[in-house]
Design brief:
224 residues; mainly alpha; Arc Repressor Mutant, subunit A; Four Helix Bundle (Hemerythrin (Met), subunit A); 2 domains; two-stranded antiparallel sheet; 9 helices
Amino acid sequence: MTPLQIDFGQHPLSLKEMAEQSIKKAIFEGQLEPETSYSDMQLAKTLGISKTPVREALIELASKGLLIHEARKGFKIRQLSQKGVKDLFHYRTVLELSILDMVIPQITDEEIDQLHEILSKNKFHLEQDSEFKQSIIADRHFHMNLVELSCNPFFKKAIEQVRDLCDLAGTWSLINVGRKYEAQKEHEKILDMIKLRDVEATKNKMEEHLSITCNTIIKTLERI
């Protein structure tokens, strides 16, 4: 297995938190194989830290649904079925539409400018993106910024967990390259409706965007 590296980040974190971030990053970047079981000792060795914080990190990731704990075998990356993807996006849609109900009536011009800047940067990076993983990061940045504007920590926590699972499904499904450009255009249409402060129109565009993403993943899973 390719040696993993601890991500120290910019803020003081515990070894457990650093291990969790590093393992999650390894999952999304394909350093860990979806069909392989990994032990806490194995990952601790490659991360260069003790076993206890790594095991705590693995248990945390399993509680969030990214990993499955197999007795006497270790931890394996969760693979979502077509029904699992549908259920996940149904839940995500309910959450994100509720967030729009909170955000749009009180959004400021400055916050709209911030969203516009995010999409402008995303468009620039997409042109240089040879892999879909950077597109997933760009997509997540836009959606999570909307969540931040809700100022509701409970929604933020729920969305972060849902996004991890959605991103996992997108990563392992190898979504077609053209989808990243489509998603960018859909984000721009959502922002157009936000600028008008039109709650229902924005929710319709968001629901359409999430439905297309869900169906794209399911179609890819059908070919695997």
